[in-house]
Amino acid sequence: MPNQTIYILSIESSCDDTSIAVLKNQTVLSNVVASQKVHQNYGGVVPELASRAHQQNIIPVMHQALKEAKIEKTHISAIAFTRGPGLMGSLLVGTSFAKSLAMALEIPLIEVNHMQAHLLAHFIDDAGQEIPSFPFLGITISGGHTQIVKVTHHFELEVIGETLDDAIGEAFDKGGKMLGLSYPAGPQIDKLAKLGNPKSFDFPIPNVKELNFSFSGLKTALLYFIQKSQKENPNFIEENLADICASYQYTIVKILTNKIKKAVKQTGIREIAIGGGVSANREIRETLQQLALKHHWKVHIPKFEYTTDNAAMIGIVGYYKYLEKDFCGLDVTPKARFGF
Ligand code: KG4
Ligand code: ZN
After folding, report:
1. 215 lines ligand 1 (CB under 6 A)
2. Do residues 223 and 291 both lie within one domain?
3. Is 276 in the pocket of ligand 1 (CB under 6 A)?
4. 315 lines ligand 1 (CB under 6 A)
């Protein structure tokens, strides 16, 4: 613990959530998220609408974050922001805002990789949450990402598996759309699955090399299955919705957990930390807890607030980078594709 108190104001705008947080060292003083409702009618995020909404939201969100943190702008030590990966138009809003703030306040600017932030969210000091020890396997599962990352240090991360096509959240959202559910369908499938039988229908588990994932075949399998079943019974979806959701979700969870088991075997690492919006899924949480008991793994699941896209996770990376004096220049530009 440094003897100095560091206040980081952090900005996240990579997709469809405008979020600003204030951290005092590893503790979150505020974490305000404005989720954009505008995309609900389109079945997915519309990039142009997302960047416009960020423009509208970012100043009120910052005022709210400072108010909740009970802090003046002049006390902030540095500004951290998401440089990428994400939607270029959305990233541009957060990046430009971060640069202007750092320049006006004459304080350092810190660029943050959004995927690293999902993993380091586990290091937020939150009473009762145990912090992972190195090395651990970070599993980032959301609407935009599906990765298995070997984390040996805060700044030593290696992607050892990732999706070759759709992200796991897209499998939920696109599958849900076929079933007539609104965007995002993940939480609805989760709820409906609870009422159905996961063994009602069989969907294929893809045979993908090494620790990589593929979800597009499953999505197509669901489409053909629905089309075929509706030919025989036009009310097939309405009459079997819970069973279809349960079986579809069961398959997604199986694809994920099969690869996690393989990653544990391959690396010998038994400590697992999940992050990203899909980690809210009840069946994923329960299955991982069961596997942890059976195989003596340690599983870390962060508080929901820090698992979906949020600025507090950007702030914790900002804090560690501040300690290393890892600052960036005001000429920094966003990167839609941004590796570790
Ligand atoms: O991390 P996140 O808020 O945003 C990014 O995509 O980066 O994740 C959103 C994704 C959506 O695909 C949503 O359907 C999914 O997380 N999701 C869930 C659940 N809650 C959110 N998927 C399955 N079960 C849930 N309970
Ligand atoms: Zn994310």
Report:
1. no
2. yes
3. yes
4. no
Distance CA(260)–CA(255), nearest Å, equals 9
- Report residue 304's pLDDT band, with 50, 70 and 90 as the boundaries: confident
At 63, which CATH number? Answer: 3.30.420.40
Determine whether the shortest distance from the Cβ of 281 to ligand 1 is under 6 A. Answer: yes
Question: Do 92 and 182 reside in the same domain of the chain?
Answer: no
129 within a domain of the structure (yes/no): no
Nearest CA residue ID for atom 8, ligand 1:
277
106 Cα–ligand 2 center, Å: 29
Tell me the residue range of the domain where 218 lies. 136-301
C-alpha to C-alpha distance for 317 and 303, rounded to whole angstroms: 17
Cα separation, 312 vs 310, whole angstroms: 6
Closest atom of ligand 1 to 168 CA is: 12
Partners of 150 in the beta sheet? 137, 158
**How many structural domains are present in the chain?**
2
Residue range 42-52: mean pLDDT, rounded: 83
117 alpha carbon, closest ligand: 2
Q: How sure is the predictor about 20, in pLDDT bands with cuts at 50, 70 and 90?
A: very high
Question: Is 325 buried (19+), middle (13-18) or exposed (0-12) by CB count in 10 A?
Answer: exposed
Tens-place pLDDT, residues 137-194: 999 999 988 999 999 999 999 999 999 999 999 999 999 999 999 989 999 999 999 9
CA–CA separation, 113 and 306 (whole Å) = 15
The whole model's pTM is what?
Answer: 0.93
> What's residue 1's pLDDT?
52
Q: Which amino acid is residue 43, in one-letter code?
A: G
- Please state, in angstroms and rounded to a whole number, the distance separating the CA atoms of residues 271 and 214: 24
